[in-house]
Amino acid sequence: MASVRYFLWIFIVLLLPHNQTSQSLDATWWALGLESSFNQYEALRNPDVLIFGTQQMCTQLPGLSPGQRKLCNLYSDHMGPIGEGAKVGIEECQYQFRDQRWNCSTSDQESVFGRVMRIASREAAFTHAISAAGVINSISRNCREGSLQTCGCSRASRPDDLPKEWIWGGCGDNVEYGYQFSKNFVDIREKDSTPQKGSSESKRIKMNLHNNEAGRRAIYAKTDIQCKCHGVSGSCSLTTCWLQLPPFRVIGSYLKEKYDGASKVRVNKKGKMDIFEKRFNRPSEEDLVYLQQSPNYCLSNEETGSLGTKGRECNKTSIGTDGCDLMCCGRGYNSYRVEVVERCNCKFKWCCYVKCKRCKLTKDVYICK
To answer: How far apart are CA 113 and CA 62, in angstroms?
Structure first.
């Protein structure tokens, strides 16, 4: 079986297009989360894969900086979880912004979110935070599951307020390792650059590093202790506790709140971030920060990378951001009547399944002009 996996590995490497080594200015490791990239690193998840060819594979992976390629060579089995983390970050971004004019669309294969990420806006702040959080989330879980060679269950210290008779030591999510590896892998992309001090690029790097850290701290803020009772006939004679990550939707909602309250900052001559409005508190390491106002997402703009809202579906009756007035930016909308097939008249059958009919329904759909 190992020989079969080995030849599969060689086959994948040989099929990879060899012009991917020259990355564009906008190329980023987020591309590992796209479906088109998933098969390229899936072989790296297998610890039985021989070292031969690993360096070539890491060179071919899309969007990696020089430092990230080195980490790929050293920790090849981590690349699958990193790709999963990027994927869950992209999907969560799209969920949280599904009703916004900017909806986190993946517009190309290299920069993922497109040219709009060149603008140091609050949207860029959110994407950096949710992506960094996705990596720590995925690595931490894979450690607990025993999928990675260099980590295992969490070794977090026993909480002081845990009752003495309760056992601490269930196999928890290894947030400590996930945090450190995420910090090394995600942040090294920014540290690979050596821009001139005081330049716009150096300021953007400070912003990205701050928001990366905010994403990782969101994981820490929401990770909690879980306990389980053990005993005969439902008695709770023994209680075991461990550290457990929350569902990633909780992290996404938490960071969306941080996005809504993000602070516009500037970088002073000393390289420190200052807020524009002195009446507001200085943002903490858990808060999101941005340097530039967001572009107009109403209209398609090739220069800024805005896709516009033409063709987006809207809600005629809503007064929120998904409503046709706001989503269509006052341009109006077209209405269509479509026929959809949905599950209906569902009934529980003993035992144990749900049986549904399929019903045809007529639905009104509103599309922005």
So the answer is: 14
* Torsion angles phi and psi, residue 141, rounded to 5: -70, -40
pLDDT in tens, 9-65: 333 333 344 333 334 557 789 988 886 555 555 555 554 544 445 666 788 887 899
Closest to 136 in 3D by CA, of 29, 32, 216, 33: 216
Q: What is the CATH architecture assignment of 324-368?
A: 2-Layer Sandwich (3.30)
Percent of the chain's residues with pLDDT above 90: 53
130-143 residues labelled b (16+ CB within 10 A) or e (exposed): bbbbbbbbbbbbbb
Contact predicate 127/113, CB 8 Å: yes
Residue 366 CB partners (closer than 8 Å, separation 6+): 313, 314, 315, 316, 324, 333, 334, 335, 336
Classify 369 as helix, strand or coil.
coil
Distances (CA, A) of 331 to 7, 324, 366, 368: 56, 9, 13, 7
Judge whether 86 and 113 are in contact, CB under 8 Å: no
Interior angle at CA 354, CA 348 and CA 359, nearest 5: 105
Length of the chain in residues, anyone? Answer: 369
Q: How do the domains of the chain map onto residue ranges?
A: 2-308, 324-368
Query: How much is the pTM?
Result: 0.84
Beta-bridge partner residues of 344: 357
Q: What is the DSSP letter of 315?
A: B
